[in-house]
Amino acid sequence: MSKTIYLVTHPEATHHTDGLVGGWFDSDLTTRGVEQAGAIAESLVRRLDGATTEVLSSDLLRARRTAEVIANRLHVQVNLDADLREKSFGDAEGRSVAWLRERIIPIPEFGERLRHDEGIPGAETRMDLAERAYRVMDGVNHSPHGQHTLVTHGGTSTLLIAAWIGMPIVHAGLVHFRVSPGSISVLRRDSRNLSHEVAQLNDVSHLDQEPQGREI
Length: 216
What we know:
Layout: E1 3-9, H1 14-18, H2 31-48, E2 54-57, H3 61-74, E3 78-80, H4 97-103, H5 126-141, E4 147-152, H6 154-164, E5 184-189, E6 196-203
Parallel strand pairs: 1-4, 2-3, 2-4
Antiparallel strand pairs: 1-5, 5-6
Helix pairs in contact: 2-3, 5-6
């Protein structure tokens, strides 16, 4: 069966504009972010062209509010899944990005990258995040629905795409797919040979301005 996944990164949130670490810190959308969520919803209406979609969202406020705008426009329900959250940054969450950068132990170029300890108490490893993302994508892969909209975060998006293309989880620490706040990426499964395609990455053409910041 063919399948299309619209992978949405939540738009501008208060931690972006305040220069704070996001992670599980429950920041809200800014006024601009709410407007961008509406633009995302309108883009999805055009893309779906009358088809229905399952909307699955991170339960963090900035993603949940984005998903609610989308779901209201599409007349569907939002299903929340904590596995779609951003990586937890533990004690760094809600602190300044500068605070984190002064303390974080950089990821090594070689060796164990997913299980690397960044030195921040309470933080998840990227392996923790990868296991969550791969679990979500396994559920989507086996779902009977043909259209899915996943509302998530920047760091999580990379690992969802890695899972979609079948990258072994042990190698997922080597890749990065750069996505901007408010972007839509499109993943497709071909009905003829069932191959998994990244049909579009980081589309922000629906936003009237360049997106603010990047997800941390």
